[in-house]
Design a protein that fits this description.
Elements lengths: L1 E5 L4 H12 L3 E6 L7 H11 L5 E5 L4 H8 L3 E4 L8 H4 L1 H22 L3 E7 L23 H20 L3 E6 L2 E2 L8 H11 L3 E4 L6 E2 L2 E2 H11 L22 E6 L5 E2 H12 L5 E4 L14 H7 L7 H18 L3
Parallel strand pairs: 1-2, 1-4, 2-3, 4-5, 5-6, 6-11, 7-10, 8-13
Antiparallel strand pairs: 9-12
Length: 333
């Protein structure tokens, strides 16, 4: 297939592009290459993708129409977004620009190109203050705790309207705390691992036992996305009572997570074991907007694809720590 991936130089975008290329697809990658974190990391990811004959890349913030015209995509995976829960407290406008205006632009272009399937990256953060466990796609998600979560929920709602009005098959997949090699420096696995490896103290929000996350290894996430691409929503054809398929549009939301939340303390201990070093911990107040727990219900993903993430935390953390040490050794400081 011809697949256009936005955010191709990002953490998840890079892994997805590499997998799609390995599977023989033509991939058109686009990315704004913003400076939210060190662009050197994005350049290093692109350097691994660029040698593939089936890969093309355009650096764009505006002018996406030309990229769509050149790519003629059969499917679009929209990953580009302003990420990060905490950064939304500091720079809320970035989330409006990227996650609302940016999403609208992609929806318009996907509609005009009549793509066969639009896959739209959302987040587990949209479940917000929900006290139901696990989080399931049919649950109401009307109480987001951060602007990041609200912007992603708004993106889902916009994509549903487009799906209904123009019969645009759309899947919104909700990520649950993705980690792994080539990850983002602002996320806790990277921050903790880098500090622990250097013998510096780590800052922990809360006591480490009150925050639980459903960590999802990046290869598992990519496997799920790859399997969802051909699982095109068809209005009026749900796969079961758990299906979030819209009654008025070829649109559904799908969780992608292990369904096995662990404590933040468990993540820290896995990193300590992998690196052979014990962390000094500085305890801080739980930050505004931090949900106490995320917990993916994966029944719908299993029904649609026959797959659910399964990589144990210890295995995924070990792979990430080994990669981080190698990356730091090869990258000038």
């Amino acid at each position: 297939m011809r697949i256009l991936v936005t955010g191709a130089a990002g953490f998840i975008g890079f892994h997805l592009c590499r997998r799609l290329l390995a599977d023989g697809h033509e991939v058109a990658g686009v990315d704004g290459m913003t400076a939210y974190y060190d662009p050197t990391l994005k350049d290093a990811r692109l350097a691994l993708l660029s040698p593939h004959n089936g890969f093309s890349f355009e650096r764009v913030m505006a002018g996406m129409a030309a990229a769509f015209e050149r790519a003629q995509p059969e499917a679009v995976v929209h990953l580009a977004a302003q990420a990060g829960v905490r950064y939304s407290l500091e720079n809320p406008r970035a989330y409006v620009d990227a996650n609302l205006v940016g999403a609208f632009n992609v929806l318009e272009l996907a509609r005009a190109a009549a793509v066969g399937h639009l896959l739209f990256a959302s987040t587990s953060s949209i479940y917000g203050a929900s006290d139901k466990r696990p989080f399931e796609e049919l649950d109401r998600a009307d109480h987001p705790l951060t602007l990041y979560a609200a912007s992603k929920k708004a993106g889902e709602l916009m994509s549903h309207a487009y799906s209904h009005l123009w019969n645009l098959p759309t899947t919104a997949f909700r990520f649950f705390t993705v980690y792994g090699p080539w990850g983002r420096p602002d996320m806790s696995p990277w921050r903790f691992a880098e500090a622990i490896d250097a013998g510096r103290p780590i800052e922990v929000y809360g006591d480490g036992d009150e925050i639980w996350r459903d960590f999802t290894y990046v290869d598992d996430l990519v496997e799920a996305i790859v399997r969802l691409i051909p699982a095109v929503p068809v209005k009026g054809a749900p796969v079961g009572p758990m299906d979030s398929l819209s009654p008025v549009a070829p649109w559904r939301a799908v969780n992608i997570g292990r369904g096995e939340p662990v404590r933040l303390t468990d993540l820290i201990e896995a990193i300590e074991t992998s690196l052979g070093n014990i962390a000094e911990r500085i305890q801080l107040e739980v930050q505004a907007g931090d949900a106490p727990l995320t917990f993916a219900g994966a029944e719908l993903l299993q029904a649609l694809t026959g797959y659910r993430p399964a990589t144990p935390l210890s295995e995924g953390v070990g792979a990430f720590c080994a990669w981080l040490r190698a990356y730091r050794a090869a990258t000038p400081s």
